[in-house]
Design brief:
414 residues, alpha+beta, NE0471 N-terminal domain-like, Double-stranded beta-helix, 2 domains, 6-stranded mixed β-sheet
């Protein structure tokens, strides 16, 4: 018997988690569905094909990978449930035909589905919208602790999901440290800037073809999100300050979720224009030609919060009816003024050893202009949102604080 079988009372489950016992109180079989209920009134309705797909020992789930083996084309009407009972431990036992073979489904595993713990939003904190009054400064955590402690890393992941931002302190001022941090989270997303990229700002480069990004100048960068030129922009950005001796150059952060809320409430016509009229975003660096057309507030994704595409240096062309262009520009102007409004924008200075981490599709970041001869060197990486969410779920299940593990949805499987 494997360790997982021992934890799950000898019953295999279709994943690699351990489940507490949750004995079923009753089972009913009607047509294509098995109806399950627990003593506290919770119910779950399971289609026979879904149960067959999740059967271990009948070609449904591979015991090694815990992945499904059944091609939907191989599901047949001959796959029927001859009997549905409960074991002495309260697990579900089904007699499958035509094999005349029984399969047991762990009650705790079934209960986690009934409670919605199988849904993407489960095991994650809910996003909290903020402005400069609600969140006067970003949450701050220890960078060294993130490398050593899963519990500390879990808190960082939860900050990034809840607020979209966290600043790590006391990181060593050494190039490449972000690779060590990323190794604790997930794969780095590469781009035309490289997997690990430098922001070595030189005020002499403004208007110079030697740089392919405004970030490598001393110019002000208004609130923006990176790489809207991609079909799916990078999810999270990590910026490690190695040295910052420049005069000026303070960092800014604005919660795009708060801007969307403000527009919906007070400027609904602007929100409609910003979320439906499209613009072409175009990387104009030598030797590259990334392009994508989408609204500034892109609601096309499945995530609860929209993706903001708001980097004016690469917003190149209106992609909308000519009659909408003037109003779209008015809405765009209001949007960017709000993003730079002190009511919504945090302003602070990054020091050597600080790492600014933020949701690149939610939180708009920027930089005040700077001058002088002092050095300013940052390194950055992108990590996709999928990796942050995956790591957070795994950590919250094993090390995390009390986050909202349940969804209000659920109740039907298949």
């Amino acid at each position: 018997m494997t360790q997982m079988q021992q934890v799950n009372n000898g019953v295999d489950v279709p994943d690699f988690y351990a489940y507490a016992a949750a004995p079923l109180a009753a089972v009913e079989h009607h047509g294509d569905f098995i109806h399950l209920s627990w003593g506290d009134g919770q119910r779950l309705h399971c289609h026979r094909f879904w149960l067959r797909e999740n059967a271990l020992g009948l070609g449904g789930i591979d015991p090694a990978t815990r992945e499904g083996l059944l091609d939907p084309a191989d599901l047949t009407d001959a796959m029927t449930i001859a009997a549905a009972d409960l074991t002495d431990q309260g697990d579900l036992s089904l007699l499958w035909q035509p094999e005349a073979q029984r399969c047991t489904y762990h009650g705790g595993w079934l209960r986690h589905i009934a409670d919605g713990q199988h849904l993407p939003e489960s095991w994650l904190p809910k996003p909290e919208v903020w402005d400069a009054q609600i969140l006067p400064s970003p949450p701050r955590r220890s960078a060294p602790d993130a490398l050593e402690s899963d519990r500390d890393l879990c808190e960082i992941m939860n900050d990034l999901i809840r607020y979209g931002v966290c600043v790590l302190e006391r990181a060593p001022s050494e190039e490449g440290f972000l690779n060590k941090l990323a190794a604790r989270i997930g794969p780095v997303r590469d781009s035309n800037f490289g997997a690990l990229w430098d922001v070595v700002a030189d005020i002499s480069l403004a208007g110079d073809a030697k740089t392919n990004t405004t970030a490598n100048t001393g110019l002000r960068l208004g609130p923006h999100t990176d790489l809207p030129t991609r079909e799916i922009p990078p999810g999270y950005q990590f910026l490690h300050c190695l040295i910052n001796e420049a005069d000026g150059g303070e960092s800014t952060l604005t919660d795009g979720a708060a801007l969307v809320q403000e527009l919906k409430t007070h400027h609904p016509a602007d929100y409609e224009l910003l979320s439906t009229r499209r613009w072409v975003f175009f990387n104009r660096g030598p030797g590259i030609d990334h392009r994508w057309s989408a609204p500034i507030i892109d609601t096309s994704g499945a995530h609860a919060l929209p993706t903001l595409r708001a980097f004016y240096p690469v917003r190149a062309f209106p992609d909308m009816p000519e009659g909408d262009v003037a109003e779209a520009y008015e809405a765009l102007r209001r949007f960017h003024k709000l993003a730079d409004d002190p009511r919504f924008e945090l302003t602070f200075r990054l020091g050597a050893g600080d790492i600014m981490c933020f949701d690149n599709r939610r939180v708009m970041h920027g930089r005040k202009g700077f001058s002088g001869s002092g050095k300013r060197h940052l390194q950055g990486v992108y990590i996709d949102r999928d990796e942050i969410l995956s790591r957070a779920r795994a950590l919250n299940r094993s090390h995390g604080p009390d986050v909202d593990r349940k969804s209000e949805m659920g109740g039907t499987a298949g």
